[in-house]
Amino acid sequence: MNDDYLWDKTGQPDPEIQKLEEILGTLRYEPRPFVLPRRRNYFPLLAIAASILLAIIAGSIWLRVRSGDEVPRQEAKLESPTPKPLEAPQPPRTGSALNPPLHASNRIRKPRSASSVINDEEALAAKEQLMLALRITTEKLSMVHRKTQPNQIKNQHRIG
Fold first, then answer.
1. pLDDT tens digits along 14-28
2. How many CB atoms lie within 10 A of CB 124?
3. How many Å apart are CA 129 and CA 92, to the nearest integer?
């Protein structure tokens, strides 16, 4: 047997080795180009889904901010109320057996005139407008306070 045949196929081949080469020939190395298996590309689908999600989030934030800042507009009436004439102050009454002090139960109620009822209605309307203006001002001031204050951790003390 010639060992050169096993290494570089020169010399006389051995019949057993030729038989083994034929049997194992199907397992011989055959060079082919390297091909990666094709995978489905999901990037465009993910990009579309992310864009839609961002659009929905941006729209909901925009609607929330837009509807949160709007306050129904109410205009105050520009009627100047007529001032009531000032009454002279009465000296305080002291109680005695002949002249008891006036209490709410002892007072006699006088019938109210139409002008005093109208003045009371105007006063109530003015009070309602004032209370509304105070509520709006309070809300606006608290909103400004919240926006200008940084997020601070309360009750935090420096150690050392």
1. 888 889 888 888 888
2. 10
3. 35
